[in-house]
Amino acid sequence: MEIPAGPSRKLPAVHLVKPKLEPGEESLPARLNAGEDQETTPLSGRRPFFTAIMAKTHVQKPYQLAIPAHFHRRLPARRTAAVLRCGGGSWIMSYCGDNRLKRLDGAWADFAVDNGLLVGDACVFELVSGGGVRGQELVFEVQVLRGGGMPGEIADKGATADDPIVIAD
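RE: above sequence
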């Protein structure tokens, strides 16, 4: 393949994550290999997004999901309706932008439980609509990446399109 002459554009480093298999395992655990009902929808890559690696407080009581500070400027500074869409389902909740801690309300627990989120899983939240438009609900398309112990060297990756996480099997 010949590379065309002209200005070069530096491509971002890509971080590949391969699911870990224990010695003697020939396939992924059932939770990761579930088939049709766990179909993932690729995110557009053209809209703003943030990632969250699930910790205990995200997936167990008190079920809290704070929005990272770098993403606050894209969201309203008031309480507003929010919808998380994932795997063909929708979860309605509130975005609490009027607090010092910007977060999703208690209905986040329904999303976490319904999607079987565990510590170490990652969620990518792509803002589809509503960022800053008064009266319009926030809509996030969410992709769940089953982790089970995401390597530390990539846990901080994926905050921008210049530093993507790519899952390969």
